[in-house]
Amino acid sequence: MGVLFRPSPRMLIGIATIFMTVGSFLLLIPQATPFRLLPFPDRAPSPRSHERLYGDGYRGHASPADINRVANATLGFDRVFVVGLPERSDKRDAITLTSALTGFRVEWVDGVRGESVPDKAVPFGTSRERLWEANLGSWRAHMNAARRIIQDDLASALILEDDVDWDVRLKPQLERVAQGARAILSSNPKPHSPYGDDWDILWLGHCGEIFPETLEENRGRSSDDPALRYMTRRFVIQDDMTVPPRDRITGLLDFKNSPEHTRWVHISGAPICTFAYALSQRGARKVLFDLSVNHLTGPFDNALAGLCRRAVSTHGIEDPAAAGDGGLDTKCISVTPPLYFHHKARGLVDGDSDIKAINDGQVRERGSTENIVWSARGNIDNMILGATTMESQYDNQDV
Ligand SMILES: *[C@@H]1O[C@H](CO)[C@@H](O)[C@H](O)[C@H]1NC(C)=O
């Protein structure tokens, strides 16, 4: 496998010629410009080997080998933070158990109630009434996480919301994501982060995401526009059995037109929801400035997506009048379909929300998580027992 193989100059000319002839034609296909194709997992342990693809013992199979740092106890980041109210002990118990069993360690960043944020602390120009208290509390808790990254001088941190779920095979998934992130953005063959060193935001968990060239402000771009070339960079993970059947995936893209079991690592367009995202040190600084110190343009997830969107849609524009602040040149990468998703827990439906009172007492008999095949939350017992095959949320899928 050679993400970082060193081609000879003659090969480079050959490759360049192929790209120029094939590339211009590919750009006309709205579907994708396949950047790199990789089957999942790259060197798959055969089913007979009964390797556990989760837990502390999983070491990774990626190449170059330094990518396997994503399998460490903080998933290749400096820390993993979970944002949530301390009194939601039910959510803390579940996250503590699922993360420990899958093989990573979390630290808590206390959630904030909106009403505890005084008017004076609300960013200038932000209307508290328009934002409503729940959004204000969520915004503040995420800002506290970003601030901690800066204050403690962390190279990066993954930030999770406290009701998320993921696949038992998260670590093998992250090996591919790291290869993708490096292929798209990083030029350093020995990066400090296994995900490469040029990203600000890695958006791993969202409710839906689109490719940036389909945003309305980018639709008219000509095929020789360097910005278009930047925003269509895409890393394709093929035969990824952790991707649900395509007619069951939820999100904004039309997955039915793409091959089964395909996942993309790509430049972010405008993701919705912040189930899970990583910030680099540089990314945390941009976020704390753009979403607090300077202003706040809306609910936290929209404001974060707005930063990524402004950056990608003004990429390469030199004229300050047209580029504005250029989205602080924020480099955002998304994974679609996402690796993390909101879990609908068994029990009281009103319990999903930290704000709603228990009203009608409606109960969910069975927990579920969209877009996740081997739900960690749904396989806690199997992981405790050390199983190698888990229960799939997609019954008739052969995984
Ligand atoms: C995991 O790897 C990252 C990247 O090399 C590193 O920053 C982090 O400290 C490591 N975590 C642990 C627990 O060793």
Automatic annotation (TrEMBL):
Signal peptide: none annotated. CDD domains: Glyco_transf_25 (cd06532). The chain crosses the membrane at residues 12-29. Keywords: Glycosyltransferase, Membrane, Transferase, Transmembrane, Transmembrane helix. One of its GO terms (molecular function) is transferase activity. Belongs to the glycosyltransferase 25 family. This is Uu.00g138340.m01.CDS01. It comes from Anthostomella pinea.
